Predict the structure.
Amino acid sequence: MDQWAGKVALVTGASSGIGAETAKLLAKGGMKVIAVARRLENLKELAASIKSEFNVQIYPIKCDVQQEEEILKVFKWAEEELGGVDVLINNAGVVVNKPIIEGATEDFRKIIDVNVIAMAICSRELVQSVKKRNARGYIFNINSIAGHYADLITMPISVYAASKYAVTGMTASLRNEIINAKLDIKITSISPGMVQTEMIEKAFESLGDVQTLLEGVPILKDKDIADLVIYGLSTPRNAQICEVIITPHEAIAPKNPRPFSNQ
């Protein structure tokens, strides 16, 4: 991690959950962190918390990743104020608890826009920033086990699984492009099982009391995923972690039935 101290990291979807926890650990590790999301007040609270706990500053910026011009403004600000972005954590994501066969087209578009297109735009801009400076970089795509084993998820999640399969494919394509361009940029896809985050709680509140539903369900914490980002950044320059699939360790979890799968 020391090799990235003083470098600039951009975290999308940083207002809560995995994004917020990752921003904290990156800042603690000495990186200059740009935290973006739609909810600026949450970002400001995160910045204050990090300042209080670690005595370091992060940069909260409001950004709706569905709007390309807002993404471009963030990268432009980063270039003008901090010199550019070195590490990108593509964390922003959305899920909708509705079946495809009864779903709204606007939900389909929102999921693809946030989970796939915004990730492609941010990745493109990171690569261009690194290439312009002849620097080194790292991209982390926060994927999902849904992007590998959609058949395990029997509850309705609209086109979420489809979007995550797209992330799996896009990560592979980006890696090949980066290799062909001879750029010093690593890219890692992190695919968690269920993580207890605000996104999950909001998406599934229509099923009833989410906290009650989650009791006894093997589940990951947001810090578990953030720790993997730090681990990736700690690897030597000659080593690249291509894909990580992380699931709860069921041997130490209660054995209640799972409400979200028949597996």
